[in-house]
Amino acid sequence: MTPFAHALAFLHALSVQTSNAILYTAMYFKHPAYEIEREYRFEHVRAIDNVEGVITVGSRSYIEFDWRSHDPRSLTHIVLGPATDQEQARQYAEECLRSIGIDPRNVRIQPSTIPYRS
């Protein structure tokens, strides 16, 4: 193996290890102020040119995940962000729940306790 091939192999291994560390950090660590969210984070690692199931909203891309097909009762709690009009957001959340067949009375909807800084 040539020195150039060794360098490429090393850089590839380094990039894989660095990527793993970044993904681990993204999944398991968050600022303590956001603990109330108790969200689930899913990381889907795939080839960069594989766009199957990708939805782009603005500048962000997401993988579509139908949680209702796994367990429709899994949504039990909604926390409204601190910057939103709380009453309007509550009404919208209830409307969204009804539109997918979930009784809003079975989902706890509450404002975030995180202080808002503009």
Give a nutshell description of this structure.
The chain has 118 residues and is of the alpha+beta class. The protein contains two helices and four strands, in the order αβββαβ.
List keywords for this structure.
2 domains; two-stranded antiparallel sheet; alpha+beta; 2 helices; about 120 residues; two-stranded parallel sheet
Describe the secondary-structure layout.
Elements: H1 3-28, E1 54-57, E2 60-63, E3 77-80, H2 86-99, E4 108-111
Parallel strand pairs: 3-4
Antiparallel strand pairs: 1-2
In terms of per-residue confidence, which ranges show pLDDT below 50 for 5 or more consecutive residues? none
| Major β-sheet strand ordering | 1-2
Order of helices and strands: HEEEHE
**Care to count the β-strands?**
4
Describe the protein's architecture and organization.
It is a single chain. The chain has helices at 3-28, 86-99; strands spanning 54-57, 60-63, 77-80, 108-111. With 118 residues, it is an alpha+beta fold. It has two domains: 1-65, no CATH class; 68-118, no CATH class. The strands form two sheets. A two-stranded antiparallel ribbon has the order 1-2. Helix 2 (86-99) links the parallel strand 3 and strand 4.
